[in-house]
Amino acid sequence: MNSDNFSIKSYVTRNGRSTKAQRYAFNSLSGKYCVPFADSPLDFYAVFNNYNPVTIEIGFGMGSATAKIAAVNPQKNYIGVEVFRAGIGRLLWEIEKQNLSNVRIIEYDAVSVFEKMLPDNSLGAVHIFFPDPWPKARHHKRRLLKRPFTDTLASKLMTGGYVYMVSDCDDYCNFALSELSATIALRNSYEKFAPPQSWRPVTKFEKKALSHSSSIKELLFTPASGFQCAPR
């Protein structure tokens, strides 16, 4: 797929402050748990030393949900893709603290990672929790969950895999529902929005959104020709 289609990024680089602990974790642990971006397919066995199914999380924020999900699912591997150093440092600290051997991080643009590093039919799941909604109409072109990127997501799923998106922005949820529904290689596991998935931890961001009366919507799509698996 032509990367020119994705020249408009779905994020902006922010110089947010990292704590001393986050900077220390990044500097001391990134060599152990971060996978460098490469212009070639990633060998999951070389990364994890096992053939367990792999979940990719796009934009894990501070990584609290990532760590919690990985901790209760040691039989699965997780790769978080993020560009913000503070969140990477925080997740690295959690990985080391909890001795999570099934979590790795790629510090790079997610679109490029999917295009270049992930083999087709290789992922058990894609998690996208509270992506930037880009609420202004003139910024909708920056939204991550739109075609043709949704076609790329579909091409990376193995049989029984799924794409799971959660957001507190109604407009973005409806937009993503339309784009995912129009992706021929995907099918909606529900008539419209998915019911709350009990296995997903509630983050501080989500609690804050709920305190402001925001509604949380979830989408769960699987390969059109595959079977539905139990997500996690």
Give structural notes.
- The chain is an alpha/beta fold and 232 residues long.
- The protein has one domain: Vaccinia Virus protein VP39 (Rossmann fold, 3-Layer(aba) Sandwich).
- Helices cover 33% and strands 19% of the residues.
- The protein has helices at 20-33, 44-48, 64-71, 85-98, 110-116, 149-156, 170-181, 204-211, and strands at 54-58, 77-82, 103-107, 123-129, 157-167, 186-188, 217-223.
- The protein has a 7-stranded mixed beta sheet with strand order 3-2-1-4-5-7-6, with helices on both faces.
- β4, α6 and β5 (157-167) form a beta-alpha-beta unit.
- It is globular, with a radius of gyration of 17 Å.
Which features does this protein show?
232 residues; alpha/beta; Rossmann fold; 7-stranded mixed β-sheet; 8 helices; 7 strands; 19% strand; globular
Describe what is shown at a glance.
The protein is α/β, with parallel strands linked by helices and about 230 residues long.
CATH superfamily: Vaccinia Virus protein VP39
What's the architecture in CATH terms? 3-Layer(aba) Sandwich
Question: SSE order, as H and E?
Answer: HHEHEHEHEHEHEHE
Question: Do you know the CATH topology?
Answer: Rossmann fold
CATH class: Alpha Beta
Helix run count: 8
Low-confidence runs: 1-6
Radius of gyration: 17 Å
Secondary-structure map with pairings?
Blueprint: H1 20-33, H2 44-48, E1 54-58, H3 64-71, E2 77-82, H4 85-98, E3 103-107, H5 110-116, E4 123-129, H6 149-156, E5 157-167, H7 170-181, E6 186-188, H8 204-211, E7 217-223
Helix pairs in contact: 1-4, 3-4
